[in-house]
Amino acid sequence: MREKYLLHCPGCGRPFPDRYTLDCPSGCNALLRTIYREPRLVLRDLPGVFRYSSWLPIEGHLRIDAGPVSYASTGLARELGLSNLTITFSGYWPERGGRMETCSFKELEAQPTVLRLREKGAGVLQISSAGNTGRAFCQVSALTGAPVVVVVPSSAADRLWTTAPSPNVCLITVDGDYSDSIAFGRDVCSIPGVVPEGGAKNVARRDGMGTVVLDGTLFAGRLPDAYFQAVGSGTGGIAAWEAADRLIADGRFGTRLPALHLSQNLPFVPMVRAWEAGRREIVPEEDMPDAEASIERVFAGVLTNRHPPWGVRGGVYDALAASGGRMYAVSNDEARSAARLFEATEEIDLDPAAAVAVASLLRAAEEGFVEPGEHILLNVTGGGYQRAAEDLDCYPIEPYLRVRAGEAVAGALRDDIISWLAEKGVAIRA
Length: 430
Hints:
Blueprint: E1 5-8, E2 15-16, E3 33-36, E4 69-72, H1 75-80, E5 84-89, E6 92-93, E7 98-99, H2 107-120, E8 124-128, H3 132-144, E9 148-153, E10 161-162, E11 169-175, H4 178-188, E12 194-196, H5 203-220, E13 226-230, H6 235-250, E14 259-265, H7 270-276, H8 284-287, H9 291-297, H10 316-323, E15 326-330, H11 332-346, H12 352-367, E16 375-380, H13 385-391, E17 395-396, E18 401-404, H14 411-423
Parallel strand pairs: 5-16, 8-9, 8-12, 9-11, 11-18, 13-14, 13-16, 14-15
Antiparallel strand pairs: 1-2, 1-3, 4-5, 6-7, 10-17
Helix pairs in contact: 2-3, 2-5, 5-6, 6-10, 11-12
């Protein structure tokens, strides 16, 4: 292989070069994977996540010092009776080296995705989000100048802020939920020059998130036996599985996949219900009854994707099945209690989604789903908001447009978006 990497479709087995490709050219219903020229992980002397650039689908790097930080837990591990608990923290915690100023591991996705489009495609990225992903892309836009169109539910608008001015962000709020934002964002991409970020289909997002497993494994010197994370779309679980596969092929870190322990926040737990029923497909009537009301009641609003990549080839179901994994339905009270325990034992505050993951680890330890001596990797996907508020400037992002759920990108609304793109120098084809 002469190229740094190729894309590979697990459906048809076809390899092909990357052109910011999101789908198999043959039309397979499968998530593309990256196949890297370097069969062994080679660390680079680069900032943040780009130290892992040999296994990222990019050629260059960004001058952003934000990446995952792993350490051996003492406080939480002692509380749970675990002797080998590694915490990989993605947030703001300067004493530990945590430099993700948006306090979310979504920065691991945003950085290589923005760079991948710059290198392999053209246009302006469109991102739909429940809050954390959108904030991460806004931050990268603020630091690099890359224009982005971000669509979020109106209820998540206050989660959109950066630590530097962000003049190249077009924020659109939708009077609906996360899935309504996804639908509107898809419609925005009908405007020539606007490129869908791609969600789980984007290999840069998944390989960026996969650096959590790379970092935790290198810290511990071996692959974990069990991996814990809360999921909304489940893309992080897929990314962990793929990263572990590469580390096994590397040959230096172990031969067995970590069991994926993935959690959702009650009462909205469609993947948990589908997994417990042994179904490859999510059935809305059974797995998401009264979805809108359920979404309004969750503690961790970012975990509320109604259309996760569950049954697709290479999706969440396959990741759980391949790893011998388990899913957990975590209540709001369990998550809040876990957040308090984590802050008391590890001395840093948590994002609500990370609190859901910690709650699942507590349950697993109490009920014997993990053994005291097992090597465990806990993905703390966000935290350090209190420290960030003390140390950093905060620039809220004002919406450029406010729309209704189900509203079409047409007429004056479409013209407004095109006008914003023109201001940013984006050429709009007829």
